[in-house]
Design brief:
21 strands; binds magnesium ion; disordered N terminus; alpha/beta; 38% helix; globular; 24 helices
């Protein structure tokens, strides 16, 4: 709003190039395919920015095929759309759909909603913000988003971006998703658990609701898989305009990919013509570290090179920081000095979810953090592992968005050809399915074996999940959801942690268990800078609780609150304020679900001997599948699978209690159990 320079646009300008639409709408629109001068959504005159963005939008490849798309949408209940990253799928297609849906429904008061799912929170927010700008409306009104614990939408919302797991959660309360007229599953090629389950669920819903339409969007030809899955759905390909990207490999394998990445950035900055750089790394810590080092190296080179703007990008970054990826490169320091460069260091979010214009150079070390699950030993772990060929191709494509580019792969060509697998396995094949099975049961799926999965998980993984849920009391012996299971499914948590929360009032410690559950969901809160390891470890030891790491986390949380969430207190004590803020927010949200589920918030008297005992007992009630016993040989054996394990070096337990519960099983050179607490056998 603000600068409303009224533009005198002729009502008959044929600038939308669509030809068919623009029926009078609330008296503010026009006829004959012109550019409306009033916003159809709020009746306000369009701002000049609207027209500026519109010109840019019309350059996007999807606009060439708008008519074709709308025709296919009219004629089919389900359709599949493939197009290169950046062609305009996420931002434009939902708006096209909105036009078509609105025209068809005619009656403006009739409730309708276009829902578009994106697997990543940060993409849902960012795309939504962009689309609100494009439509010249306030975010949260006509266009909104909904991600876990953050609903930025209202009664007015007609286009909603949500993470796929949020739509799945909505489906558990409203299985046929009555409010939606069109559902768009974006980034289907990511093959996340939630998108896969939604596919199976929606396939059924579409049979019952002929008025519902589904658009499945994907950045690559995995689409053919969806085409055979949704029988009869036509495939539309958006003709991309990718510029050629020259690919370079290293001669020898790199020993340290971080060091190699920094070196490559510096070389590009010194020797290559202008153009921004995108570096793919695996996680927050690594990214922050590399960002600092790049900035330092460039500073050391003085003014013989141009200025740089180094921007990190990872999921837990604040929205304001995320926006920085769209800022332009810095201008030269002096008028005829060397040009500046923007350097984005990102997780694989930037692979297909977010488009950053102006990238000319991509650096791909070939790794990403991926989830693995071994049902035999029931271990799910997040491991830094080699990406697939398909990912590598997507990454290099990011260099050719606006002009010919270069991609530097920090591995050998031989390794690309021989070592990388062709595609990334879908998440459903490498996850612990306990949570998914609980959701499916809530959706009313009784027969899991015959559920129409895009790729069916191993029967063993399903059996394990059913077994855990049965032990936890979420499913009865014939596999039906129990009342307890229903309550557990309200919490967006691992079922074992959900169980511990649900039972905590009966141990008179739900306040404390809430804090522990929130801390377990947050990123690691302990910082260990390499330069000050000793001081950091001493700081951590001060929070240490003699009975274990869960209680240590509780101590940290309490101390953080007692010190008024103070930043300098966090710095002095080597704890990550962002992680604690996350935990605090998580705790509030979980408390809300507790209240909704009629679960009492209570505590045992802190001075009572039972204070910690009760907490540990409540934890046992959720964690009894994750117990290890100290053997005479001096190592631990997991009770469930008789695996030899060791206490993780980060644990504050130094006395090796007889029985412990653990949060995580970590596979490295040895089997470790991490976040461990001392319990009694009889509990
Ligand atoms: O989904 P897809 O990868 O096909 O593309 P998109 O996300 O719809 O992005 C299309 C274009 O919109 C990008 O090339 C950007 O130029 C622009 N865009 C932007 O400027 N700011 C955003 N937050 C998102 C998109
Ligand atoms: Mg997209």
């Amino acid at each position: 709003m603000g600068t409303e320079r009224k533009r005198n646009v002729s009502l008959f300008d044929d600038a939308t190039a669509t030809g068919t639409n623009n029926r009078a709408n609330g008296g503010t629109s026009v006829h004959g395919g012109g550019v409306p001068s009033y916003n159809r959504w709020n009746g306000r005159p369009y701002t000049s920015t609207y027209y500026e963005i519109l010109e840019k939008r019309k350059m996007l490849p999807v606009w060439q095929q708008k008519e074709e798309f709308l025709k296919m949408l009219r004629e089919n209940q389900t359709l599949i759309l493939v197009g290169e990253t950046g062609c305009g799928k996420s931002t434009q297609i939902p708006q096209f759909v909105l036009e078509a849906v609105e025209l068809e429904s005619g009656d403006k008061r009739k409730k309708f909603m276009v829902a578009c799912t994106l697997p990543r929170r940060i993409a849902a927010m960012s795309v939504c913000r962009r689309v609100a700008n494009e439509m010249d409306v306030t975010i949260g009104e006509e266009v909104g988003y909904s991600i876990l614990f953050e609903d930025c939408s209202s009664e007015k919302t007609v286009l909603k971006y949500l993470t796929d797991d949020m739509l799945l959660r909505e489906a558990t309360t409203d299985p046929s998703l009555e409010r939606c007229k069109v559902i768009i599953l974006d980034e289907a090629h990511e093959r996340t658990l939630a998108t896969d389950v939604l596919c199976g669920h929606l396939k059924e819903v579409l049979k019952k609701r002929p008025d519902l339409k589904l658009v499945v969007m994907s950045a690559n030809l995995e689409a053919e898989k969806f085409q055979s899955y949704f029988v009869g759905a036509p495939l539309m390909k958006v003709q991309g305009r990718l510029h050629p990207v020259e690919i370079f490999y290293t001669q020898e394998p790199e020993r340290d990919y971080l060091e190699a990445a920094i070196r490559t950035v510096v070389q590009i900055h010194m020797c290559e013509p202008p153009g921004d750089i995108l570096v793919f790394l695996t996680g927050e810590e690594e990214i922050e570290d590399v960002c600092c080092k790049i900035a330092k190296e460039v500073r050391n080179m003085g003014d013989q090179v141009g200025p740089v703007k180094v921007v990190p990008l990872y999921p837990t970054l604040s929205p304001a920081m995320q926006q920085k990826i769209y800022e332009p490169a810095p201008p030269p320091v002096t008028e005829d000095g060397p040009t500046g460069r923007k350097i984005v260091v990102s997780t694989n979010i930037a692979e297909t979810s977010l488009t950053i214009d102006g990238i000319v150079y991509v650096i791909d070390p070939g790794f990403a953090k991926q989830k693995f699950y071994n049902p035999r030993v029931r271990v799910e772990s997040l491991l830094v592992s080699p990406i697939s060929k398909e990912s590598a191709q997507q990454r290099s494509g990011r260099a050719g968005r606006t002009q010919p580019g270069k991609c530097f792969r920090l591995y050998t060509e031989r390794s690309f050809n021989n070592d990388l697998q062709p595609q990334t396995y879908p998440e459903i094949l490498r996850s612990n399915l306990a949570n998914t099975v609980l959701t499916l049961k809530k959706l009313g799926v009784d027969d899991l074996v015959h559920f129409d999965f895009v790729d069916p998980p191993a029967p063993e993984a399903l059996m394990r999940a059913l077994e855990v849920l049965n032990y936890l009391g979420a499913l009865d012996d014939v596999g039906k959801l129990t009342k307890l299971g229903g309550t557990m499914s309200e919490f967006p948590l691992d079922p074992q942690i959900a169980k511990m929360l649900v039972v905590s009032p009966s141990f008179n410690c739900s306040n404390e268990i809430l804090s522990i559950a929130a801390m377990l969901s947050a990123p690691n809160c302990f910082i260990r800078p390499r330069e000050t390891l000793k001081a950091a470890d001493e700081a951590k030891a001060r929070f240490g609780h003699i009975d274990g790491d869960h209680l240590t986390l509780l101590n940290v949380y309490h101390a953080y609150k007692q010190n008024n969430e103070d930043q300098s207190w966090c710095n002095e004590n080597f704890v990550n304020q962002r992680a604690l803020r996350f935990a605090d927010n998580m705790r509030q949200q979980l408390a809300r679900i507790m209240a909704r589920s009629n679960l009492r918030l209570c505590s045992t008297d802190f001075n009572s001997r039972d204070y910690y005992v009760n907490i540990r007992k409540a934890m046992c009630a959720g964690y009894f599948m994750k117990v290890a016993h100290l053997e005479r040989t001096g190592h631990y054996l997991t009770v469930k699978n008789n695996q030899v394990v060791h206490l993780h070096p980060s644990s504050c337990l130094d006395n090796k209690p007889e029985w412990v519960i653990y949060n995580e099983f970590v596979l490295t050179s040895r089997n470790f159990i991490r976040t461990v607490t001392d319990v009694r056998g009889e509990w």
